[in-house]
Every structure is written in C-alpha cells, then in structure tokens.
Design brief:
Keywords: 4Fe-4S, DNA damage, DNA repair, Glycosidase, Hydrolase, Iron, Iron-sulfur, Metal-binding
InterPro entries: Type-4_UDG (IPR053423), UDG_Type-4/5 (IPR051536), Ura-DNA_glyco_family4 (IPR005273), Uracil-DNA_glycosylase-like (IPR005122), Uracil-DNA_glycosylase-like_sf (IPR036895)
GO biological process, one term: DNA repair
Strand order of the largest sheet: 1-3-2-4-6-5
CATH architecture: 3-Layer(aba) Sandwich
Pfam families: UDG
Radius of gyration: 15 Å
Order of helices and strands: HEEHHEHEHHEEHH
CATH topology: Uracil-DNA Glycosylase, subunit E
Number of helices: 8
CATH superfamily: Uracil-DNA glycosylase-like domain
Number of strands: 6
Helix content: 40-55%
Oligomer: single chain
GO molecular function, one term: 4 iron, 4 sulfur cluster binding
Shape: globular
C-alpha cells in the first residue's frame, strides 16, 4: 500500500495534479473489513492530504461513532485522489485516470463491505462489480452482494455525508443507512 500511495502522490495522469496542494490517497486500516469510498477531496482534504476532514468528515465521524466504529478500524478513500477546482464534480476523464488506484486499494485491502458515499462512487463501484446503476435516492441503504476472486463483497450505497449539511432532512436517512451497515456487520460477525 505504501508503494501505491507513493504513486498517487506523484501522479500526473490528469490535469488535477497541477492544482492540488496535496493528493489524498486514503487513510485508515490496511486490514479494514469496511471501506468507505467518497467522490473526491474537498478544500480541507487537499490542505491536509487526508480524506473527510472537513465538515462532511465530522458528519462521517458522528455516523461511524453512532454504530461503534472509528476511523482506525475502517479505510476511507475517494474515487478521485486530487481536489477538482471549486469542489466541482469529478469528470469522466478524472475518474478514468484515477480509478485504477481505487481498484488497487480494493485488491490490497480486500474489504468485506464497501460503502459508497455519493453518486459518483456508487456509480463507479456498482459498474465495477457488474450491477446496473440507478439514482442514489432509489438505492441508498440497499445491500448488493458481489462475488470476487477474494470472496464475497457487500456494497452499500449511501448519500454523501455532505448531504446532511445542505439537506438536513436527509441526516435521518443517513443514520438509518448506517444502522443497516451495523446490522450487516453483525450478521457477518465482523
């Protein structure tokens, strides 16, 4: 993983490298059973080189704590490893350039559960594992089961934690989805 993180830090596959302060490979346990995949770093992530350290990260921390998890037990990353300007959505080109890094992270960590946070990570991960992609509002909280070379992987699409900041009414749905994650962890004896 350290070699992969070094490759990410030196990446110049798309124009985003020219604008970044720090690339954001990911953080957490390399032996994590649960991997969270967001979309792309924001301002604070770019400043610190760590995922989900801004306001959305505080929401994620609260949600993790609500089900008895902390950042040291999970792995948190994004599809795109550098901040798009003005926090715009990542482009197809950027996702295509960066996704091999995410694929390698999944292969190294071999999580039992992948929680996608937001529509871009949900779309990428569901396509990667052969599922049809629907809107996040239709599929959030559902569990998809995929077979891989390293065993079964369960995918749970969720709203991005930032949604709780600009659409507070969805915070309750996020909490409910995290309860489903807790139930899945319990049923898998993780």
């Amino acid at each position: 993983m350290k070699k992969l993180e070094e490759k990410i830090k030196n990446c110049r596959k798309c124009p985003l490298w020219q604008l970044r302060t720090n690339p954001v490979p990911g953080s957490g346990s390399y032996d994590a059973k649960v991997m969270f995949v967001g979309e792309a770093p924001g301002y604070w992530e770019d400043q610190q080189g760590l995922p989900f350290v801004g306001k959305a990260g505080k929401v994620l921390d609260e949600l993790l704590n609500s089900i008895g998890l902390n950042r040291d037990e999970v792995y948190i990353t994004n599809v795109v490893k550098c901040r798009p300007p003005n926090n715009r959505d990542p482009t197809e080109e950027e996702i295509k350039a960066c996704s091999p890094y995410l694929d390698a992270q999944i292969d190294i960590i071999r999580p039992r559960i992948i929680v996608t946070l937001g529509r871009f990570s949900t779309s990428y991960i569901l396509k990667k594992f052969g599922f049809a992609v629907e809107g996040i509002s239709k599929i959030h909280g559902k569990v998809f089961e995929a077979r891989t070379l390293f065993g079964r992987v369960y995918i749970i699409p969720m709203y991005h934690p930032a949604v709780a900041l600009y659409r507070p009414q969805l915070r309750k749905e996020l909490k409910e989805d995290f309860k489903k994650l807790k139930e899945l962890l319990k049923s898998l004896k993780i």
